[in-house]
Amino acid sequence: MTKSPREIADEQLTAYNNHDLNAFCALFHEKAELIDLPSNTVVAKGMKAIRTLYADRFANPDLKCVVHTKTDLADFAIDRETLHGLPTGKVEIIAMYQVQNSLIDKVYFIRQ
After folding, report:
1. Cα–Cα distance, 17 to 46 (Å, whole number)
2. What are the pLDDT digits (tens) for 8-20?
3. How far apart are the first and last CA of the chain?
4. Are the CB atoms for 71 and 78 separated by under 8 Å?
5. How many CB atoms are located within 10 Å of the residue 5 CB?
6. What is the DSSP letter of 58?
7. 3-state DSSP call for residue 6?
8. 38-74, pLDDT tens digit by residue?
9. Rounded Cα distance, 92 and 28, in Å
10. For the residues of 17-73, what is the DSSP string, one character each?
11. Backbone dihedral region of 91: left (phi > 0), alpha (psi from -120 to 50 degrees) or beta?
12. Whole-number Å distance between alpha carbons of 110 and 95
């Protein structure tokens, strides 16, 4: 059964806030990319890099993501988020999850 981009983004949020690395990674395509905008900097490419990045983050018990608004268009689920518990402190962000075949293919981040 194919899931919508919103369903996948919401499942990803739950896994993130539960610090469940396996459930989180299961929602990403093996060759997924995390990309910062507007610089187009690739933060992580491929499951190994994504797993390593989030294993470190999930070790912090204060890590939490709060979604303020959600919108969906085509194969994107777009969230306005506040991240808490990062080494740099609270971060305001827009995350755009591109989903294909019920897996996250790319995530684009715009950070304040």
Report:
1. 22
2. 999 999 999 999 9
3. 36
4. yes
5. 21
6. H
7. helix
8. 999 999 999 999 999 999 999 999 999 999 999 999 9
9. 23
10. HTT-HHHHHTTEEEEEEEEEETTTEEEEESHHHHHHHHHHHHT-TT-EEEEEEEEEE
11. beta
12. 7
Range 81-91 burial, b when 16+ CB lie within 10 A, else e = bebeeeeeeee
User: Is the pTM value of this prediction over 0.90?
Assistant: yes
Q: How far is CA 38 from the centre of its chain?
A: 17
> Three-state SS for 10?
helix
Residue found by looking up tokens 């777009």 in the block:
78
Provide the token pair at 46: 């491929």
Cα 21–chain centre separation: 12
Token couple for 84? 């808490």
Residue 42, Ramachandran bin (φ over 0: left; ψ between -120 and 50: alpha; else beta): beta
